[in-house]
Amino acid sequence: MLEWYAAPMEGLTGWRWRQVQHEMFGGAALYVTPFVSPNGNFSFQRKELEELDPERNRGIPVVPQILTNRAEYFVWAAKECRSRGWAQIDLNLGCPSGTVTGKNKGAGLLRQPELLRQLLDGIFDALPDMKISVKTRIGWERAEEWPALLALLETYPICRLTVHPRVRTQFYKGAADREVFRWTAEHTALPLCYNGDVTTVRDLREMGETFPDDAVMVGRGLVADPSLLRQATGGPAASLEELREFHDRLYGLYCRDFSGDVPVLHHMRELWNYFSRSFRETDTLLRQVRKAGDCRAYETAVRQFFYDAELSH
Ligand SMILES: Cc1cc2nc3c(=O)[nH]c(=O)nc-3n(C[C@H](O)[C@H](O)[C@H](O)COP(=O)(O)O)c2cc1C
Questions:
Q1: Are residues 151 and 281 in the same domain?
Q2: Is 137 annotated among the ligand-binding residues?
Q3: Known EC number(s) (predicted)?
Q4: Is the whole-model pTM more than 0.90?
Q5: CA 300 to centroid of ligand 1, rounded, Å
Q6: How many domains are contained in the chain?
Q7: Catalytic residue IDs
Q8: Do 140 and 249 fall into the same domain?
Q9: Which residues lie closer than 8 Å to 130 by C-beta, 6 or more apart?
Q10: 22 labelled as ligand-binding?
Q11: Residues 254-301: pLDDT tens digits?
């Protein structure tokens, strides 16, 4: 059955974004959290605890994502998540960042098949009753690596394999290779989820028609237009008023929770990098937003923007 998922995006789709998006627009059957990264201290950071907190995610179907290359850290973190009521845990095999891959984590594991095997053996031996999903790229530097990686992954009872069909060295450049996903769908019995460059309702419909038995995960397209999955499930596109309310509520949560203007503005700038695509003619606004040295200047720029704004669709 085709389902739509919200992708994990560090700094963008954290619990505050999920709260507001889910309440206002919904449409996602699951929301994978930006990764948490357990280590030898066997304790989560405050930000990670918030990300996993049932209260902050109340009513939202959340799948915590874990980034590690050590089975004992994953198993500890998964049990912590289970004790908070989360039934499924996702393993990150896709993060391309040099600081992550340099430690053989995320996509770094894709060039270390033996380490990956040990990690998966340890995870699936210790957690036979938990639903474990995996989100992966198709290789380190060449798509030709994918058949061997898939053969390895297939030996485990992965409850859903999300495939982002780029290799690590591409980061987010070039096009996601939908042919590789098609090949994967023809060659594996694992439940699949497609992820990459799905940004319009037309894309969503096309994916739904081509892969009716799989799921589709949307990242940047959903941050750009938080109503995208509502539209995929037959609902209307967001109105200008809804987008303004979405912005104001999220901004209000950042202002409430962060101390000082700097972290608030940092988060809002990240959001606008994508959210601006919902509107026409955003150059002046984006300049003003980037220039705003404090929240007052930011609020003035955004008020003016919404006064003049026109939707891009
Ligand atoms: C700023 C940013 C943060 C991301 N954080 C994560 C993350 O924490 N975990 C993860 O698995 N993928 C992460 N990703 C990758 C996205 O989940 C997704 O795979 C990627 O954006 C491609 O999908 P899209 O074209 O629908 O955006 C991140 C991507 C970006 C651009």
A1: no
A2: no
A3: 1.3.1.-
A4: yes
A5: 31
A6: 2
A7: 95
A8: no
A9: 78, 82, 87, 88, 89
A10: no
A11: 999 999 999 999 999 999 999 999 999 888 888 888 899 999 999 999
The DSSP call for residue 156 is: S
Does residue 313 form part of some domain? no
Structure tokens, 138: 């198709």
What domain range includes position 302? 240-308
Provide the β-strand partners of residue 19: none
The Cα 232–Cα 212 span in angstroms is: 13
Asked if 204 and 80 sit in the same domain, the reply is yes
- Nearest CA, atom 4, ligand 1: 9
**DSSP state for residue 34 in the 8-state scheme:** P
What does the pLDDT look like over 78-124, one tens digit per residue? 999 999 999 999 999 999 999 999 999 999 999 999 999 999 999 99
In three-state secondary structure terms, 62 is: strand
Alpha helices in the chain (DSSP H): 15-24, 46-52, 71-83, 98-101, 113-126, 146-153, 178-187, 201-210, 220-224, 228-232, 240-257, 261-275, 283-291, 295-308
Residues 188 and 181: beta-carbon distance below 8 Å: no
What is the Cα–Cα distance from 285 to 234, expressed in whole angstroms?
Answer: 31
